[in-house]
């Protein structure tokens, strides 16, 4: 399994500084971060850094790359001693949240010494049979600011929770979606731009079994059991995969047709429709794709994995976070050619605010693993 990164690299969180200390701020094509066999890598990312947890026979620990408060410069793969034997983790701009079998901790990562800012004990038995993934914890969820813990009714049976900049998207064991928080950009999907203090069921998806949810800066996404992709919220940069007026204007300027930009008194074509805010979930069409299995949202971009193991990205691309070897934005889901041309099967994708991290294996290796799993099930 190999992990790749592309997009914003201002603090060396994707590619470390060279011998002269220079850091490439923008990485527009996938760069190999790790190529470890026999161990499990997972990644969490924020704007200025990324964290990776490695599980090996000798135990597990989290290492951080990018900005660390108090450091004289960017760090790369710095081990966090307090993370030894953690089972779960999440990084934000100020804190590293660590999940253990018997507790959850929030640490302020800084030089010369990390500071524990919050801790909550939990019974190991509460996680038996179903290990909750952060930010979910027993009886609630963790946020990267005081008071850190927010209660959540156990009657909801939450199995997954995604936190956006100002909103939350939750998936329950029955495949139902709930949202709450700020609705200023339609990111709650309830048809209005009002906020909700408590979890409210997303009625537009009622009856559609959902298997995956994600929350970006001000947009949201979900994947159904049938492989359909639904998105809602802000579409200023085309992050919903719907027509964006601002991107159309940018494209016209790039091609030298600035005089044709809508907004200059010229009549717009009657069949041209632009979406700025999509307040209800919209079914997004990914060309030549019949099934989506995973989606992840950045601040203003989106990445999705298909059933065949291809990666598609769209939205804001100014720092190369779409992986298309350019800094252009797009409101049309586009295949990331790098993995396709390398005959690689994408297994996972994690979006930071302005960057993207991808795990992939060779398609030959993926096919071999699938066959072995089939034999194991038959035996």
Task: Give structural notes.
With 379 residues, the chain is mainly β. The model has no long low-confidence stretch (mean pLDDT 90). It has helices at residues 245-254, 337-341, 363-378, and strands spanning 2-8, 26-35, 40-45, 49-56, 59-66, 75-80, 88-91, 95-99, 103-108, 115-121, 136-137, 140-142, 149-151, 158-163, 167-172, 177-181, 196-201, 210-215, 219-224, 229-234, 277-284, 292-297, 301-306, 311-315, 330-335, 344-351, 355-362. The chain is globular and about 60 Å long. The longest helix is centred in the last third of the chain and has 16 residues, at 363-378. The strands form 7 sheets. Strands 2-1-27-26 form a 4-stranded antiparallel beta sheet. Helices cover 8% and strands 43% of the residues. A hairpin with a 3-residue loop joins strand 3 and strand 4 (49-56). It has 3 helices and 27 strands.
């Amino acid at each position: 399994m190999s992990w790749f990164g592309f997009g914003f690299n201002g603090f060396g969180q994707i590619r470390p500084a060279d011998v002269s200390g220079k850091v490439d701020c923008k990485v527009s094509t996938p760069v190999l971060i790790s190529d470890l066999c026999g161990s499990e890598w997972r990644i969490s990312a924020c704007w200025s850094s990324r964290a990776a947890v490695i599980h090996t026979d000798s135990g597990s620990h989290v290492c951080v790359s990018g900005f660390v408060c108090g450091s004289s410069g960017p760090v790369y793969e710095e081990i966090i001693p307090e993370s030894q034997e953690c089972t779960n983790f999440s990084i934000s701009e100020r804190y590293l949240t660590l999940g253990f079998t018997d507790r959850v901790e929030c640490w302020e990562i800084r030089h010369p010494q990390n500071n524990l800012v919050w801790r909550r004990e939990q019974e190991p038995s509460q996680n038996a049979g179903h290990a909750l993934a952060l930010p979910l914890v027993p009886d609630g969820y963790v946020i990267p600011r005081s008071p850190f813990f927010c209660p959540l009714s156990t009657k909801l049976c939450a199995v997954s929770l995604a936190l956006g900049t100002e909103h939350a998207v939750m998936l329950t064991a029955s495949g139902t979606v709930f949202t709450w928080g700020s609705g200023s950009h339609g990111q709650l999907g309830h048809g209005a731009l009002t906020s909700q203090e408590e979890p409210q069921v997303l009625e537009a998806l009622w009856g559609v079994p959902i298997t995956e949810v994600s929350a970006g800066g001000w947009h949201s996404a979900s994947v159904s059991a049938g492989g359909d992709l639904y998105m809602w919220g802000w579409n200023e940069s085309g992050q919903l995969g719907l027509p964006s007026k601002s991107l159309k204007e940018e494209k016209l300027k790039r091609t030298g047709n600035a005089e044709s930009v809508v907004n200059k008194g010229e009549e717009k074509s009657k069949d041209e429709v632009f979406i700025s805010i999509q307040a209800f979930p919209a079914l997004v069409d990914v060309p030549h794709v019949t099934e989506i299995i995973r989606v992840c949202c950045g601040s203003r971009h989106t990445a999705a994995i298909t059933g065949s193991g291809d990666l598609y990205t769209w939205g804001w691309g100014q720092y190369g976070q779409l992986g298309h070897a350019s800094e252009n934005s797009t409101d049309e889901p586009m295949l990331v050619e790098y993995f396709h041309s390398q005959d690689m099967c994408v297994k996972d994708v994690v979006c930071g605010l302005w960057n993207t991290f991808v795990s992939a294996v060779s398609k030959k290796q993926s096919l071999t693993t699938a066959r072995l799993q089939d034999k194991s099930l038959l035996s």
